[in-house]
Amino acid sequence: MQRWLSRTSSLFSVRTHRRNWTQRAGGLVEAELPANPMLLLDEWLAAALQDGHIIERGFVLATSSAEEGPTARTVVCRDVCEDGSITFGTNPNSLKGRSLRDEPRCEAVFRWGTRQVRLRGTCAVDNDNTEEMFRTLPRPARVSLELLHPIGQGNDVSEAKHQELLADVEASSLDPQTPPATFTAYRITASTLEFYQSLREDFIVDRFLYVRDGAAWSPPVRLAG
Ligand SMILES: Cc1cc2nc3c(=O)[nH]c(=O)nc-3n(C[C@H](O)[C@H](O)[C@H](O)COP(=O)(O)O)c2cc1C
């Protein structure tokens, strides 16, 4: 018999995963869904943020490349745009930056409690947005990006060097306005968005798929959960 530390059966209660916003939320009804899925994404983000924190804007970005295969990590969603795109900021030389150069198709997965949005699309550097995105970061974040720049994300750093950096960031009076080469804005233009929520005791779920149709969206289609 396998020894286990925790088991799904001991956690598998819808109530455990319910949060205030899901208690307020009703089921999704096809006729009431917006024609533009970005409005629903923005509404779900706002609902999550009401009870939460900026980190509710985090999503898992899955990329793939011939060399590295599939990889995934969390990033913060900076903009949700009506035209069907979202933005985030990162280092263009990071693993995700390199993967996206090789294969721009990617998937962004948002999850709050028992709600999930999967946005599939194509990602590109968004140079026009980089400076403004950088300037709207809190000052300590801009300072640390500036001071970390010479080391480069993901490189080995000794504990002593790390402690030195922490002290430097704290002591710094810098107020950088120009992004270092290690910070770039990216934009994912969606081709599909899938909304999923599982709020019921019987686990019958709401799952809707929007598919881009030129500049507009096909009407959302309900999918089996
Ligand atoms: C809550 C959270 C938010 C994050 N936001 C970002 C972000 O906006 N941009 C970023 O480059 N990394 C962010 N990270 C760090 C990434 O998950 C990742 O560790 C880093 O970017 C290196 O990823 P890569 O080597 O796959 O490119 C975040 C991590 C967490 C846990």
TrEMBL record:
GO molecular-function term, one example from the UniProt record: FMN binding
Enzyme class: oxidoreductase
Domain of life: Eukaryota
InterPro entries associated with the record: Pyridox_Oxase (IPR000659), Pyridox_Oxase_N (IPR011576), Split_barrel_FMN-bd (IPR012349)
The enzyme's E.C. designation: 1.4.3.5
SUPFAM superfamilies in alphabetical order: FMN-binding split barrel (SSF50475)
Family matches, as Pfam families: PNPOx_N (PF01243)
Pathway: Cofactor metabolism; pyridoxal 5'-phosphate salvage; pyridoxal 5'-phosphate from pyridoxine 5'-phosphate: step 1/1; Cofactor metabolism; pyridoxal 5'-phosphate salvage; pyridoxal 5'-phosphate from pyridoxamine 5'-phosphate: step 1/1
Gene3D superfamilies: Electron Transport, Fmn-binding Protein, Chain A (2.30.110.10)
GO BP, one annotated term: pyridoxine biosynthetic process
Statement: the UniProt record of this protein carries the keyword Metal-binding: no
Protein name as it appears in the record: pyridoxal 5'-phosphate synthase
Species of provenance: Pelagomonas calceolata
